[in-house]
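Why do we care about 3D structure at all? Because function follows from shape, and shape follows, mostly, from sequence. That is the central idea of this module. The next example makes it concrete: a single protein chain, its amino acid sequence, and then its structure expressed as tokens.
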Amino acid sequence: MKSIEKLLESFLFSSRWLLVPFYVGLVGAIAVLVWFFGIEFTHLIHMLITGDGSLVVGVLSLVDIVLLANLIIIIIFAGYENFVSKINTGDHEDRPDWMGHVDFGDLKIKLIASIIAISGIELLRAFFNVEQFDDRQMAWKVGVHITFVFSGLIFAMMDKMAESKKH
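And the structure:
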């Protein structure tokens, strides 16, 4: 019976490697974002040359893409290290300080903070193009953003309470 238990536990532990294709897929998503960033940057240059459109909205679009790419990198690194295996970079000078130190709670907070930032940018972009939206659409955008902010605050308070119980 003990050998069956050991075999089962070994199998379950090894199953964590099934997550790797998800992380590889996220790397592919970043490659798609690089392509999309190039397209948006081209639109920004076009806006600059022709004076057609809002330069601020164009820049916000680029910031939005960068925030999303940063979020994906955090998810890849932290998720892989927390659930699959440690990333062995040795003493590489470019290794981010946070790598290896972001636990699931930290990842959750970083995730919700990034979502709030992205939502805020989308809301700001909508305010710059307010004529394209009716009152109901704007109310939904504001409501969704407030919901994200409120959720972020609740997550932060829960993590703070959990952290105080540890000490």
